[in-house]
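dude i think i finally got it to work??
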Amino acid sequence: MGSEEQGEHNIRIENATLDDDAEYQCQVGPRGLSKPIRADAQLTVLIPPSSVEIVDYVAGSRIMSREGEELLLQCLVRNAKPAAEIVWFKRNVEIKSERIENTTSDAELPRRFDTRSKLTIRAQPDDNEADYICEARHPALIAPKRASVALNIQYPPGPPEIIGYTEGETVRMGQEVKLECISRGGNPLAQIVWYKNEVKIDHAYETTGRESRNVHIFRAEASDNNARFRCEASNALTTTPMKAEITLTVHFAPKQLTVKVRPEKLRPGQMVTITCESDSSNPVSRLTWLRGNGQVIQPAGNSTVPGAYSGIVSKSTLQMEVTPELHGVVITCQATNGIGPQIHDAITLEVLYKPQFQQPSDYSVDVIEGEPAIVNLTARANPSEMTYKWFRDGTAIKQLKEANAYDRITFDGPLLNLTVVRRDDKGEYKCDATNAEGSRSHTVRLNVQYPASIVQARSTVMINEGSDAEFECRAAGNPLTTTTVFWRRAGFDMEGRTSQTPGVGVAYLLVRDITRNDTGAFECVANNGIGQESIEQTWLVVKYKPLMDDSPQLTKAAGDEGQLAKLVCRAQGAPNISFGWSREGTPLTPSDKYSFSTRQVDIVTWESTMGVSNVRSRDYGLYDCIARNEMGTNSAKVVLSGTSRPDPPLALHVVNVTHDSVYLAWRSGFDGGLFQSYRLRYRQIGNEFYKYADVYPTNVTAFTLGGLALGTEYLFGIMAFNNLGESNYTQDIVKARTSSPDDDMNADLLLTRGDSPKIIIIAVSTAGALLLVLNVALVLCYLIRRRKKKCMEEAMSSEGGSSKSATIEMYAPSSYNETVNGETLSSISEKSESYSQNGSHSDYAPEDASKVAVSTYLIDQADGQVAYGSYRVAANNPAQAGSGHGTLSRPPKSVNFDMGEDNYIDTLRRNAYTQGNEAMYGKSRMVTPISPHSDAYYGVNANSPVNYPPAPHPSFHTTGTNHRYNPLSEPTGNHGAHSPYTPMGTLNIPAANGVYGPSPSSSGRASALPVNLPLPLPMSMQGHGQFSSFNPSEGPSPIMEATAQFSGPSLATVRSLETEGHLV
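look at this
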């Protein structure tokens, strides 16, 4: 092998064996001048050891030994070439010690060697569980070879140690204590046992690693105080257990207290000794004495003695003088040493003593005049069984059970009873109380209080303008203070214009710079808090000459010839006013012709009434009324004329507006000498058609007009009417706009935008949805009703064979809902739809047109039923026919019919329209004169609408079972106890070209079929309704009546026909 050119010659030996172990020589022969050369090489064949072992021990075994014994460990490495090197390790740390001895010897196999190493060890506790390793190192080994054994050295445990408590520390009773005893080392590990005062209490221990541990856990008790706790540790190598101990200090509270009283029965004047002793405690307990109300009492002395469990017992003594006030007093002994809660024991003292009154010696009781009173003088005593006696001025008062009904003052034990207090009951009353220990008496004074009443106050203070007025007011009562009496006047500047000087039971008032406008009543008020306040008025009257009242009602007077006319003159002034009357400069004096009366209306208003009897035309004209007093004279003119229609009302104005109503007010004009009523008219701006509402009650000058549309602007006018006619309507200059809830809601939403709660939005949305559904339902209902109405009209038209039709809508605003506004009741008259006649058509009938407006009234109704009847229609007298305005009464709403339902309905349908005449059914174009034998009836003008309602206070005539009244011909006030709405009972209608029914009878009365009923029948017509039919084309003719007894249809049927247009 090698390269001859380069002079390299190598030898390669494969699979070397021990035989190849020799010296090799490379020789190079001579060449040319070169001498031969050679080189030697020694080949050593390495043989690794065949085994490594610790003599007499199996590899990995444990060697048992005791602390202090010597151990010899021999490590043998066999068959190595050259001899192997041996190194010792303990826990993988090389041992370098002089006690290691190494030797080498020939092995059993040729040319191989054995190596032996001896290690001598003295057993120590730290050798326990230690691994001793013999390692053979040889160049033929890639890694050293090892053999090892483990030592198990037995030795005693270390001394025990207690942790968790240090001597001298304190533990509270109930606190958890954890004592740990730990012993480290030892083979085997130690057993640990706990002892308390030489008594074994815990022998359960556990081992972890190289230590033993016994944990004793308990809650400290009083018995643990100064107890010795010892822990012992031992194993097989210990002859005497090793010990550790502690002494525990426990703080504990006393468990209970004991309180004793000596002597047991206590009476005033004695000394009482109370002792308190606590149980043993550590540290010592502090004792505190408390009285029932929490007051701390200082003891007479305190002491201590040794107690159980090395604790201390505390004692305390309390001494007090016995008084009646000690009876029932709770004495408490309280102990605490800062450990646990305080403990206490209490005893209630029982003192035997005679009655004691709690009230002071000058005890007084306030009682109120006129009321019952009870005075309680209950005494305290022990024993509590007592008897009482009461005296007044030395006289015994009767006991309640012995008294009779006339004894007003009695007693029941400690209670003095006065059934009704009188002023003379004031004074002293004595009460005696007695028990087994003795008796005692006490006095009480009754102070009778009674309401303050004004005893001195002027009724009038009359003074000149510009002066100061002084008022004085005195009161009597009990009690009286400087605030009992004072002055006041509503609407007067009491602070700026007056000064009050109060006194006890008196008050003075000064009013400065008096003017005429200061005239009025000042109130003196006395109020001491008992009963009602006493009030007396003192009028401040400023002197000035008479001022005449020129109101239209007073500057005009009216009376018909032959009647009594009254002229009224009114003036204001002070002092008292006297009146005089004259005509054309001639004073008038009392006579058969003239009568005079004067009355005082209020403190400064006087009224004079002159009566002119048996008026003649020459009496009409101007009269002078002269009013005079010491300050001067004034006069006014009064015009006397015949009765006439009224003047228009004055000063119509809007007072308040809601979403569907307007509250209007006005002043009355001259009534024309007759009782007047009012009618409102109104319309929406932009709408030419008026609606009307009669004011009810008729004597008011304010009215709430309801049923208006939301957010709509209206114009309003008003007129007055009486039996002789109507006034003009006021100009349409009064306007008002109803409020809109949507506008209010939107305004609220704008104010709260951004922070409106979701619930409001949800509520508004829900309400809107409900309103939408309701509107749809109403529209559907309207369409259904309208269709039914149309069908009924076609059926009626086919039955009658007439081409004439009349449709009159009667309605009332929905807001009324057949209810009555608290003070007013409106009757709404509206021309809302057109009707045709003779081919003509008109959308609206003005006031002077011949068509009669139909009215719908909302009348208070108790039973909730509606029925319809007829009324007698006739002129008041022949002279009035065709010229006067007639009125119909406003009837009640509830009537029961006696007419059969089927016959009644058929009759209504047959008479819905008339054939062969020009008149609308239910409307008259001419006035029927009154029959000579008939009573007075309503007059109906053919050229003007029928007035609804009539003037109030009608007179009544009773003929048989028919009750009639006529407000046009009878003076007011003659109706007696009858209601102004008692109906006439019949509707008499003249017949032309015959009567709708049988021929007139010999009595001059014609029977007639029932006709359509424009108004509800009054209650008085139930059971005897009367009807007539008429032909308006005829001239005036006597009234022919016919009476028909009938039973009406059901309420549902009547309302159905009304809806369909048959009842108009």
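The chain is about 10% helix and 40% strand.
im so relieved honestly
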